[in-house]
Amino acid sequence: MKTILEDTSSYLEVKHSKFYCYFYPLESPSITSYLDELRKMHPKADHFCYAYLFDDYKHFSDDGEPGGTAGMPIFHVLEKEGLNHVLVVVVRYFGGIKLGAGGLVRAYTKAVTSTLPSLNTCSMEKGYQISLTIPYEEEKNLLFLLGTSTILHREYDSIIHYTVLVSSSVYQKLMKYQPILLQECMIKELNSSV
Fold it and tell me: Domains, the chain, ranges and CATH?
């Protein structure tokens, strides 16, 4: 599974209709702010068709286009590419020439697939957000075990408190440290770009 690291956009024109494609990396399945921002950027656009995947949250919308001609083709590209934690919105300005159902499917699919080469992607794997409390003399060993894991928070007191994102394999190595407060999440493997 993979995700994208940054917002990416492209433009396509088909028979005078303009298609603006926007890819966004998602930190949660909430997409309202993205759609609101695009509606402000494109106040005269006719359709804001989209699809997103965020773990078990999957949704798409034709936004007034004939059923199955916009949102589903966008969604199929995301699935085929193995993308997750991603929102794709294709903004359409109608150009005066009807494309027909098949033409719409092809246009929306092409708007998305033509953006794919520009994406900056990375692989994702199941991981954990954990909290650790360790004595000072164990910090060097802990940092070795963490390797390239992401340290979210570190606090020095009479002991050291860490909050980190780790892969499943690193989690197994950390089991000897107690107490571990565990929260399952998806983590980006930034050092293994695809």
Answer: 2-119 (3.30.230.30), 123-193 (3.30.70.240)
